[in-house]
Write a structure and sequence with these properties.
This protein has 352 residues and is an alpha/beta fold. It is built from 14 helices and nine strands. It starts with a helix and ends with a helix.
Length: 352
Amino acid sequence: MSNYERYNRSFRFIRRQSWFASVLAIILSISFSLGPAFANPDLEETSAADPTEAAQFQRKPIVGKPKIGLALGGGGARGGATIGVLKVLKEEGIEVDIVTGTSIGAVAGVYYCAGVKPDEMITHWENSEVMDHFMTIPLWVRIGIAPVLYVPRLIGGHDFDGLYKGSAWRDYLAKNLPHGTKNIEDLPITFGAVCFNLCDGKPYIVRKGNLGKVLQATCAVPSLRKPVDFSGDLLCDGGIICNLPVKQCRQMGADFVIAVNIDEPFKPADEETFRHPTSVAKRMILWGLYDIDRSQEKMADFVIHPDTEGISLISTSRKDARRSVESGEATAKACIADLKAKLAEFKKANGG
């Protein structure tokens, strides 16, 4: 090969590489300039409410008819209390325009928004059908067989971390929704579920997508249930940051927010309490939830807090199920007159 031919070949190679580099540079510059345009369109970034934000909170000017919001907190097996509250609100004719929910609060919220009657929800709850599908196998059994479940990892399997996959839970929830209700967009009342994204460490409001999958994600308690893949975003229970989504309800446009907090009340405890196994861990979980809930509560216009003391997050007891529902109903009935008065005052002041 002559020196001239070698020169031509080298020149053509360099020209091809330069063309490729130019195209790559253009693609990268466009992607960086667009930035969030390539983000998941079904997720809306949010953040936890901190004490400073709660203390300085001010209403935004109301445009048009005031919108009433309902923020439903997480709490696992205490979710019957939320249903009891929803029953009373329905009976008293209190209608809402926007609902946000975290974990079991999202489940109750979706069914409420879909038009399922609270009495029907209570039936499914009190016969333990709901929690039996959430805990398909007793926790102690699942922990016992955990080593067997890790065998696939020895031959190359790399499933996400968690004892329960959650597919049975997802299918159960989807099956019991009214016919034709498959996506969040199908709900007649505006709804958003709060989840935590493990990949970027941020909470998000999910306002679009398949309801079964969304509820599976917001109920994916870390380590207990496997997180759910949303097009590259790995979502789990939002309760670790936004367990009582009042701020999120306001972000979605609510002017007056009713919050339903079903966490156990945080009370002073005697030192003898902490001689029992797991008592310290339980106390710290209780404090953690109390700490993130109280800032959210301050951003609500009205808080309903049923007494769920002693009901475990993963209880499948029918007695606990009935007690949670009864507590929700009793608490809501006790404060309904105050709620109605405050709502009436708010609507009068804002042209509602």
